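Late entry, written up from scratch paper. The run itself happened at the end of the previous shift, but nothing got recorded in the book at the time, so transcribing now.
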Amino acid sequence: MRTNKSLKNSISNVFFSLLIGVIGFIKVKVFVNGLSNDIYSLNQLFYQIFSYIVITDIGFGLIINKQLYNAFAEEDYEKVNKIYSTSRKFYKVIGLLMMLIAFVLSFFVKYFTKAAISPMYMQIIFIIFIFRNVVDYFFVAPRYVLEADQKIYKVNHYIKSIKIIESLIEIILVLLGIDYFFVIIPGIFVTIFIDIFVNQKIYKMYPWLKNDKSFDLKYLRGTKDVIWRKIAGLLNSNTDIILISAFINPINVIIYTSYVYITKFITDTVYLVTSSITPSFANVFFKESKEKTFSVFTELNIFLLFIASFVFIMLYGFLNSLITFWIGKQYVVNNFVLFLFCFSAFQIIAEKPIAIFINGVGLFKETKVSTIAEAILNVVISILLVNKLGIAGVLIGTVVSKMSTTFVQNAMYIYKNKFKKSSYEYFILYCSVIFISLGFISLYNIINLNITNVFSWIILVLIFSVVIFICLFLIFYLFYKSFRMLINRGIYMLKNKKHFKSN
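Output as recorded:
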């Protein structure tokens, strides 16, 4: 049952992720060409500022998810209801607080950008932009219940479909030359509509889910540790654009966000699959033995290292040419910056098993120090290098800080304290996969890829993806025992499935 739910969630998430990604590619292209550089860079800056405003929810989402996972595992539906009621009231307060913060910040937005735009206009569209995104917080509580019960796939198609419609409306408005002010307005009404619609669906699925007016602070325990983790996460992922916007120029914002859009699209797709696994993983940890938990973790780790390596190699070979055909050659970066973008994507995917373990089990207090250290180091390095190296400077800050802090500390803690094992093999495995990836990447310098048009790009991507996938598969299968066990177990399950069907 657990595996079945995870699979359904994964399929739903991946399908819509791919569909939204395709629409997103079109949207970015239209926005880059249809909006001025100043307006487009401002749009990206607003997303980053909003990410910091979101910190006001103090990481409650992670805490409430953990509480709900446990409640559903215990089949304590009265407890689920109390947690839901608490979260509903909490998020209403948070929504109002976010709007207040946004209003105050609107007077200072002009200092975060070099865009040549009227401060008054900038302030107005900032408030509207933030309100469009904050509205969701007034309706989000029921979705946490559905997610904890591993049934989010039942409403995913409604949520994502409406979001696709919203993007299409924005694309049409930009193509018609409508002012950006009116482009962002429809999103408010779209968000309210989908939130009300989806919540009604959830209430029908859980008729016992009622707002009993309770507010129990015990369901917020652990928040103080989560907030530091959330702040650190924001500094790591949302500082770069602000620094580029403030210290360089709008053109570099477009370059950075275009590359990040593609790499983030890929890493987010992986995240959507693995996020569906998180409740199941938490269930395994709380109900199964340490050996079983370690076995699941090991298989997940080697699988994601395989995916990370494949993504790393393919991105380095074809990302620059994709940018050329997508938005223009003037936005292409040099090989060093390209490498940093690709390696950052590798890090995000490869270290996902550690993140899943931390989030699923709730190790927020235990990993607080390393997370804060990563954030501080990232910001310091980025600020020191951004003026000298530009985009490369902020990327170096991201890559170096992660590699030298959370990568080491979190892995060591989990292996030592939860698995009661040495982390030596984990680090050896991680580093060996990096060297394998670098070996493939070096071949691009030998093979001179002559990509002259989109058609040749597609053909070469298809050929190289098949060849690299097969080569990586053979290397992993021959040299990594955990990968062989994963594949053999998968083959065994497929054979048994066919056997049962034939009977």
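Residues 499-503 have pLDDT under 50 and may be disordered.
(Scratch paper discarded after transcription.)
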